[in-house]
Write a structure and sequence with these properties.
By secondary structure, the chain is α/β, with parallel strands linked by helices. The chain folds into two domains: 2-180, Rossmann fold (3-Layer(aba) Sandwich); 190-272, no CATH class. The chain contains twelve helices and eight strands. It has helices at residues 11-17, 27-30, 58-68, 80-90, 104-113, 118-126, 128-136, 156-164, 173-185, 211-226, 232-235, 253-272; strands at 2-5, 21-23, 73-76, 94-97, 142-143, 190-195, 200-205, 236-240. The strands form two sheets. Strands 2-3-1-4-5 form a five-stranded parallel beta sheet, sandwiched between helices. Strands 7-6-8 form a three-stranded antiparallel beta sheet. A hairpin with a 4-residue loop joins strand 6 (190-195) and strand 7 (200-205). Helix 3 runs antiparallel to helix 9. The radius of gyration is 21 Å and the shape is globular.
Length: 274
């Protein structure tokens, strides 16, 4: 069974305490993280320097379907698009667990206590009403609200009942393998586009699945942020097969390094102007 738990509901604790349960964190699938950095580092959740992974949500949906064949409980975030895909394309039963309205300040403390960044807290607390409203409006899911002081482990009995009543079977192996293969084959042909102070840069990414390449892209994202060029949503995108649509000059790592060096010089010039 798949449980979609809101941030701070105790997903990792539930997975640690319940046999055959897994907290399948989405950040390693939705963001470009350095090699060897698994899980979801609390301090980097919603960090502005993280580049989006264009293979998401396909890569994550595949991982969820694979995990469901191996675990009794697969716990995921309350991502509306992922939930929709799992429901509409693969017929999965989803149990959604979100806090009630009066828990807002309690969750602010939970986020602070576990070391979440200010950006993360701003997203979930400032957007509290809107995020919860959208998730509560999801159709064809089972809603199990969490009251003050409650975590997923506190509603274990209700979750067990939902699992016992779940008549669906895990998605067939050949369908899971098909999606996994599509994800594996889809890692090539991407380009990182950066808009600088005075120029643009197009870096061709050899393979998004290469750990060394992901580590490199993570460092580039950090540097862009430090240069004030991060504004990731507006100024740094990973496009697929950009060369089929536009005539541009592509660079490798050396060319990208020169571009960033140029941007550092321009930034320094901006800082010394009266």
């Amino acid at each position: 069974m798949i449980i979609a738990g809101f941030a701070g509901t105790g997903k990792s604790t539930f997975a640690a305490r319940v046999e055959k349960a897994i907290d399948l964190t989405s950040m390693p699938f939705s963001r470009i993280l350095p090699a060897g950095k698994g899980g979801e580092p609390e301090a980097e959740k919603a960090a502005p320097w993280l580049l989006n992974d264009p293979l998401y949500p396909d890569n994550y949906v595949a991982a969820v379907l694979r995990a469901e064949r191996e675990y009794d409980y697969v716990i995921i975030p309350t991502s509306e698009w992922v939930i929709y895909r799992l429901q509409k394309e693969y017929g999965r039963k989803i149990v959604v667990c979100c806090p009630t309205d009066e828990c807002k300040e309690e969750y602010r403390r939970r986020f602070t206590d576990r070391g979440n960044s200010e950006e993360f807290i701003k997203v979930f607390i400032d957007g509290w009403e809107g995020i919860l409203s959208n998730v509560r409006e999801l159709d064809d899911v089972v809603h199990l609200p969490l009251g003050p002081g409650e975590h997923l482990t506190d509603i274990r009995e209700a979750l067990d009942k939902e699992r016992a009543s779940d008549a669906t079977r895990p998605v067939a192996e050949h369908l899971v393998e098909k999606l996994e293969e599509e994800v594996r084959e889809g890692g090539k042909g991407y380009v990182l586009y950066i808009s600088g102070w005075e120029d643009t840069c197009h870096y061709r990414i050899p393979d998004l699945h290469d750990p060394a390449e992901r580590d490199f892209l993570y460092r580039v994202g950090r540097e862009l942020w430090e240069l004030g060029l991060s504004r990731i949503i507006e100024d740094a995108f990973i496009f697929q097969r950009l060369d089929r649509e536009f005539e541009v000059d592509f660079v490798g790592r050396e060319g990208l390094a020169k571009f960033l060096e140029q941007e550092r010089a321009l930034q320094a010039a901006q800082e010394v102007r009266p």
